[in-house]
Amino acid sequence: MSSIRCKKGWWYYRYYDATGKLRERALRTRNRETAERLKTFLDTQLEINEQIELYLNATLGFMIEHYLNYLFPQKFPQRMKDYQILARRLKDYYHYPVMHLKQTHISEMIKNLEQRYLEGSAHKTLMFLKLSNKRLS
Length: 137
Known about the structure:
The protein is α+β, with helices and mostly antiparallel strands. It has two domains: 55 residues; 76 residues. The protein contains five helices and three strands. Strands 1-2-3 form a three-stranded antiparallel sheet, covered by helices on one side. Strand 1 and strand 2 form a beta hairpin. Helix 2 packs antiparallel against helix 3. The two termini are 28 Å apart.
């Protein structure tokens, strides 16, 4: 939520940052129309920054669920059930932050999946994981 306000003839942009704190930024204009155009532009920038922050702090579970929501309108119900089964196999790793995943985490995941499932099932699960993260990159 943001707004503009006039203070002593100058326009200011007011918004809440990611922590919920109210911020105010001088627009350096005395013209209301210019201030409204700048507000529209800054609102767009603020929304983009919030989305970027969301993805930077995303966990593997968030990415997988986001991918499933992306697939839902495009796939047949049986195919979606298959994808949900593959996603369920990865539940143990949902808490991993995507930006901090290292090769050791991936190797651990692969080893664990190969121990728990048949080779083909483990491979399908890994391909699903790869596609879910590739789609959102």
